[in-house]
Each structure stands twice: as structure tokens, then as C-alpha cells.
Amino acid sequence: MHRILSKQQLSDQVFMMTLEAPLIAAERQPGQFILLQVDDNWGERIPLTIAGADAAAGSITIVFQTVGRTTHLLAEKEVGDTIPAVLGPLGTPTHIEHCGTVVCVGGGIGVAPLRPIAQAMKEAGNRVVIIIGTRNRELVIFEEEMRQIADELIVVTDDGSYGRKALVTEPLKELCERQPPPDCVVAIGPPVMMKFCAETTRPYGIRTIVSLNTIMVDGTGMCGGCRVTVGGQTRFVCVDGPEFDGHQVDFDNMIKRLRAYKPQEDAQHEAHHCRLEAQIASQKKPKA
């Protein structure tokens, strides 16, 4: 059993939890993930990237968005509750090296798994530029934590409600045109964002690493659901990744496969009546 040590709601659908997991905390490296089973009555196990770890305290931090039944059930748990199964660390760690200037691009909840990578790149002696992009101000997470890491921090929002009104690819292109240009780009976020980040850096020949964790299912390589085409060859995100050369990933195929079961996922979401969402909705109702 793994006890929940802390819980924080970062936005309407995004939560951060600290879990008691001393063995995982001691071994975890940036870029790795865990498998989590929320309770004994619901057998689905989901992969979640480790957003932070404290080996001394024996804890790990996860950040998740409520998009399906399991994540909704997880969001309903409180501090002191336990989670029966947390397996990890899994996946190939990020290759951390001193290369010069590293641009870290985080889209939405992708900022969470990007944080330990940016921290490790900084500790390796790199100059780190961080771009955070979200739809609006309410969805910006980890801004202050990233500001403490970054030599330069750029925040953009789609609607211009905070920071600069732009997509992440706009400041990324400007950085690519600087002299000297960045030596490496790491992008984590929605697949379409990572696709266009890779296309932005491609003409400049800048090495671009992307994390394809959003397509993972069982996290062990058994189901084959996370297969992707990289450089014309089939790869499995959970065992061969989750990070790959963004210029080699067939994003169009990946995005098409991600949308294949959207009707079933929407139906499952509608069938689950989340107590937490009902509570939030009731609090937003105007008082008589």
C-alpha cells in the first residue's frame, strides 16, 4: 500500500499528489514513469510520469488530468488514503548531458514531466530556456518552479490571458534563429504540439527529443497499444521510450491511432458520475 501524503488541485481537471514510495524514489531518474492501480475493485493500471521525487522523504510526485474513470477515482482520494499498487520506475531515463543550451517546451500538463528533465539539464551545466504553453491563464502550472530552474522563461497562452499570446512554436522558432542556436530541444505535451515543435526545429537541424507517454496503455510492452513508427520502424513507447527523436516520429499515424477509441472513451466518461466534479459544480452555483 502506498499512502497519499499530499494532494493539490492545480486546475479544474489537473491534480498533483505526493505518494509514499521509498524504493521508487530512490531509483527514479528523469523521464521515467510508474504504473498505478487506484483500488482493488477497479483493475485498470495506468502509466503516469514521475513529476518529482524526494529520496530522503521516500516520496514521489505525480500530476494527472481527470480524463477517464481511473483518473476520476484517483482524484476522489484524499490525504491519508492508500493506493494498492504503484510499480516503477519504468521506461528509459532521459539522456542527460552537457551540450550547451537546452530549450524545454511544455504544453499543458506536459510541464509536469518536463520539470525534472529541465532540472537535470540545468544541473548538468546547460543553459536552460523554458517555454510554457497553455490555452489560458488558469491552466498554467509550475510557473514558479520552472522560473527557479530557467535561465530564461517564456509563458504563452492561446487566448493571451497571460504571458504572450502565441503558440509555443512562435518563441521556439525565434530561439532557433538566435546565434548561436540551441543545441537541443526537449518537448513534452499534446502530440500535435510536439509534432509542430519538431517541424519548427527540423529546418535548423536542432536535435529534438519528444516524450510519447500519452499513448501508453499497460506500460509493460505486453499489449502493443503504444506502438509507434519511428524512423520507419515499429517501436513501443513503454519499453523503447518514452522519449524519441522528434524528427523521426510518424506523428500523423500516432495521432490517428489516439483518436481511434475516442467514442468509447467519451461514453465511459459519461457513464462515470464523478463525486468530485459534482461537488465543484455545486460550489459554483450562485447563492439564492
- Specify the number of helices: 10
Shape verdict: globular
Return the CATH architecture of the largest domain: 3-Layer(aba) Sandwich
The Cα radius of gyration reads 19 Å
Classified by CATH, the class of the largest domain is Alpha Beta
- Derived from helix and strand composition plus strand pairing, the structural class reads alpha/beta
Percent range for helical residues? 25-40%
In the CATH hierarchy, what is the superfamily of the largest domain? Answer: Nucleotide-binding domain of ferredoxin-NADP reductase (FNR) module
The domain tally reads 2
**Number of strand segments:** 16
- The ordered string of helix (H) and strand (E) elements is EEHEEEHEEEHEHEEHEHEEEHEHHH
Instruction: Tell me the distance between the termini.
Output: 44 Å
Binned strand content = 25-35%
CATH topology of the largest domain: Rossmann fold
Strand order of the largest sheet: 6-1-2-5-4-3-7
Mean pLDDT: 89
Q: Can you tell me the residue ranges where pLDDT is under 50 for at least 5 consecutive residues?
A: 272-277
Largest beta-sheet details: 7 strands, antiparallel
